Every structure is written in C-alpha cells, then in structure tokens.
Amino acid sequence: MISLGIESTAHTFGIGIVNEKCRILANEKESYVKKDSVGIHPREAADFHYKNAGKVIESALEKSGVSWKEIDLVSFARGPGLGNCLRVGAVVARTKALLHKKPLVGVNHCISHIEIGKKLTKAKDPVTCYASGANTQIIALEKERYRIFGETLDIGIGNFLDVFGREIGLGFPAGPKMDKIYFTAKNFLELPYTVKGMDLAFSGLLTAGKQKIGKFEKEDLVFSLMHNAFAMLTEVSERTLAHTGKKELLLTGGVAASKALREMMEKMCRQRKAKMFVPPRETCVDNGGMIAWQGLLEFKAGKRNRIKDSRILPKQRTDQIKVSWKN
Ligand code: FE2
Questions:
Q1: Ligand 1 centre and the CA of 186: distance in Å?
Q2: How far apart are CA 237 and CA 62, in angstroms?
Q3: For the domain that residue 293 is a member of, what is the CATH number?
Q4: Which residue in 3, 228, 255, 313 has a CA-CA distance of 20 to 30 Å to 105?
Q5: Ligand 1 center to residue 287 CA distance, Å?
C-alpha cells in the first residue's frame, strides 16, 4: 500500500510518499519562509503554496518512481494551522483524489509528528514534547486520545527564538546560530521563568530579553534566554512523565534539532531512567511524509473522508481525535 500525503499547515508545502513499512519514498517540499524572512503572511504563504503545489507533486512522484496508478490513497493535514494555507492542501488533495479516483483521508498535523516519530524511532508509548515554530505542546496517549498535558499560552518556542534572534541581528533562521552561541556564554542572567500549572508562556521572557539587548554580552543573553525556555519545557515534560508513569520521551518539531535542548532533556531522562528518542530531522520539521504515514494508518483502520466531509479544521486539537489505528 502506498500513501501520498500533503502538508500545508504553515510555511511548508510538502508532498510525501510512503509505503506500508513507513519507507519514505519521497519527501519533497518548498518553504515560503526563506533566509532572512520576517515571518508568515498567511495569504502570501497560500499564494506561494498554490504556485508550487504542481511542481512539488511532480518532483515527489519522480523521486519515488511511483505513478498515480500505484498510489492507494491521498491524505492531507486538516489542521491545526493557518486557514489560508490549509485550504491549499485540502484543495489539492480533493482535486487529486477525484481526478485519480483515490480515497481521501484528512489527518491531524500534531498527531502525524508523533506517529511517524514513534514508527521511525521505535518508541512504544512516549510522552511527546512537540517544540516547533508555532506549536509547543507536551502530549501523551491516555485512554484512546492524545491528551495535551501542557502547552504554550502565547507564542511557540521556535517563534520565540526566531524573534529574539532577529532582534540581535542573526537573521532567519536564528535557531541554529543561537544554539552555537549558547555553548560560548560565560554568565547566566536572571530572566523570567514562566510555568503556570502545566502550561508555559514565552512572551514575558522575550520582552525581558529584548530590554537587556545592548546592556549585556550577546552570548550571555542568548544562553540565559534559551536556558530558561528549555528548562521550562523540560520541567513540564518531566512532570508529564511523572504523572503518566511513562518511561519514554519523544522530542520532535523543528526545535528538536537544538543540541542545547537535547542535552537538557537527555539529562532529565537519565535521572528519571526514561529513554529519549529524536526522529530524523526531515520528519521533525513539517513534511508531507508524516501526513502520508498518518493517512495510511487511519485508512487501514477504516477511515475515509467524503469530499463534503473534508473541510479544513484550523483549530483542531489532538484530543478531539479518537485513536483508532495501530502503529
Ligand atoms: Fe509541525
């Protein structure tokens, strides 16, 4: 069985083609956010996706060596995400499904990150720390639902890092540069640390960091800001492990690439005798492969969307979906 998946929740338009063993035959994409960009304008991002959709599909088909005849289903991300962008993926998915007479399966973007991460790392039942530009959530499976145990109350951790990086002149993407700077700092500066119950907030930390620009060494500022943000994330992940009794942590999303974050999470996992898993980078960032895999899992469990039941769901949450599939 072969699944074609379409990702278009935000800046990335991605097409993935995977088989039943989760072999990724192609995972092509184009990103609206280029070097030194200043953020996402939803309508412009959607225009970008419309312009690039055909090209990305063609290159995925070519790379995989698979023809439409061999594809068994078309899946797409219904949400959560930016409405304008999601709509492009949905329109492309419906069009291709009708044109080539394939079943259509709409899936949740966050759950797709988790399921492909589990499959590729062989994690069985992890607590997932999903840390990306727009999303920051600590999720774990409980009674047939992926429950969100903690999440950001304002901005995503990736956006937080990018905004601060831009303020200090690192351009976009700032994350990898900040990750290097992190290890060169000498002093820790006191900054806000905001965990409210199990939720997190980054905007106070960002404002305080901005106010200190020019008054302290750049290295110390970057280190202290990242250290607090990552410690907040690690604290909530640890408390979720303690509460659920689970022994695995899956770290995914674009920020999972951070060495600083990995080191901190690893240390916490070691102390708790939990095992940490990080999927390959191409599946941590937004990609069509994870959507294809999630579509395939749900299709095998009997799910199909009729065209009239395939509207986008920009605010869809993981716990709205009953986990009916086996991975
Ligand atoms: Fe994502």
A1: 33
A2: 41
A3: 3.30.420.40
A4: 255
A5: 8
